[in-house]
Amino acid sequence: MARTMAEKVWEEHVVRRADGEPDLLYIDLHLVHEVTSPQAFEGLRLAGRPVRRPDLTVATEDHNVPTENILGPIADQVSRTQIETLRKNASEFGVRLFPMGDIDQGIVHVVGPQLGLTQPGMTVVCGDSHTSTHGAFGALAFGIGTSQVEHVLATQTLPMAPFKTMAVTVEGDLKPGVTAKDIILAVIAEIGTGGGQGYVIEYRGEAIRRLSMEARMTVCNMSIEAGARAGMIAPDETTFDYIKGRPHAPEGAEWDAAVEHWRSLRTDDGAVFDKEVVLDADALSPFVTWGTNPGQGAPLDASVPDPAGYDDPSERAAAEKALAYMDLRPGTPLREVPVDTVFLGSCTNGRIEDLRAAAEVIRGRRVADGVRMLVVPGSMRVKEQANAEGLGEVFTAAGAEWREAGCSMCLGMNPDQLKPGQRSASTSNRNFEGRQGKGGRTHLVSPLVAAATAVRGTLSSPADL
Ligand SMILES: CC(C)[C@H](C(=O)O)[C@@H](O)C(=O)O
Ligand code: SF4
């Protein structure tokens, strides 16, 4: 029978199947960070268990790290404890860790792909919802909770409830200035933040095929914001070229065998998805959010919507509430919304291509008066590469702050935060109330829009400069 890619990868990993019980899947790669691992390691310690496969487990420090003075002690007590606990656990259980100051340290979803740890056909888990990022390689990648983290540490397996399949097909060609971020914001606006619930989404179609690996990661990263369990893209030459030569990539005859297998993972012709959504890439334009969930977005050319225009009472109430929090008036052109902060970074858009795209816009220009721009590479390797290409200089010459790697202002778990009432254009993936700091207001945007907004001081695209 014709099968989807997700079904193939799942089947290859079933180690136990019994009637009325979830399948038990083997896990190929377990990524760990400081926030969701302490109780899991503590559970092992209490039970006297070792980590079953330390060689398939990799940890990094990202959420709680300050992005300045990284070699000094962490001022915040909670953050310091989290980081120290991870270091202690990693050394006690023999897990490889990339601590602050290490060239391989960075956001967990940037580090895995960068090292070639993430490969097609794998099952990848992490105690983090944006693990869906790794699906860009044709891996089945799930975010899991802390008790599941403990289960995987102990057994390298995980019982998983069955999923449904959804195809999101993006046909056609993106116009210049329109990016992967705009695709995924438009997808979420279309299907809603609950539209993906229970599904593994496969992104396909011409426009997806043409995306670089890093752009594909941006798309898959936000699958979870549509409520999906995972997002995937079939591996192809773009994928293989990206992985080849990375530290953990297979070599020689093993590489050839791996590629042959990876090619077989694509969804068979005639396979049936439980749900299908089709989008036209030509019709897309730069997209920004105006509300307090990632589905409350609109083209930058549009205006703040009028809640009265929603037929559905709960959507109307949500829009009213969002506009009150965001301090926005219906009918205001989105291009006229002023920001005081621009954040370029996160596991959605903190990779080298994101920085390059933004630097191209910023080069030779200045960040607008009264605007603070934070540029935070997703990993120290990204920072190193950006510096080698002169991008760090472009950002600092424009008046932006050029930081060390971490989650930074994506979420309020470290010193990089909005103050109450501040408003950001942010390349991250979540915009709920207080996400970037108590009382902060977030507009989700692409790196191109972030850069243009930094220059103009109001939500803008490079075409406006
Ligand atoms: C802290 C962590 C558990 C969380 C997640 O799971 O996504 C974080 O990464 C986020 O983006 O909100
Ligand atoms: S960058 Fe943001 S979304 Fe990604 S793992 Fe860190 S906090 Fe979560």
UniProtKB/TrEMBL annotation:
Residues 416-443 are annotated as: Disordered. PROSITE patterns: ACONITASE_1 (PS00450), ACONITASE_2 (PS01244). Its cofactor is [4Fe-4S] cluster. [4Fe-4S] cluster binds at C347, C407, C410. InterPro entries: 3-IsopropMal_deHydase_lsu, Acnase/IPM_dHydase_lsu_aba_1/3, Acoase/IPM_deHydtase_lsu_aba, Aconitase_4Fe-4S_BS, Aconitase_4Fe-4S_dom, IPM_dehydratase_rel_enz, IPMI_cat. CDD domains: IPMI. Gene3D superfamilies: Aconitase, domain 3 (3.30.499.10). Keywords: 4Fe-4S, Amino-acid biosynthesis, Branched-chain amino acid biosynthesis, Iron, Iron-sulfur, Leucine biosynthesis, Lyase, Metal-binding. It is an enzyme of class 4 (lyase). Transmembrane segments: none annotated. Binds 1 [4Fe-4S] cluster per subunit. Residues 7-457 form the Aconitase/3-isopropylmalate dehydratase large subunit alpha/beta/alpha domain. Pathway: Amino-acid biosynthesis; L-leucine biosynthesis; L-leucine from 3-methyl-2-oxobutanoate: step 2/4. GO terms for molecular function: 3-isopropylmalate dehydratase activity. Its EC number is 4.2.1.33. It catalyses: (2R,3S)-3-isopropylmalate = (2S)-2-isopropylmalate. Belongs to the aconitase/IPM isomerase family. LeuC type 1 subfamily. Catalyzes the isomerization between 2-isopropylmalate and 3-isopropylmalate, via the formation of 2-isopropylmaleate. Heterodimer of LeuC and LeuD. This is 3-isopropylmalate dehydratase large subunit.
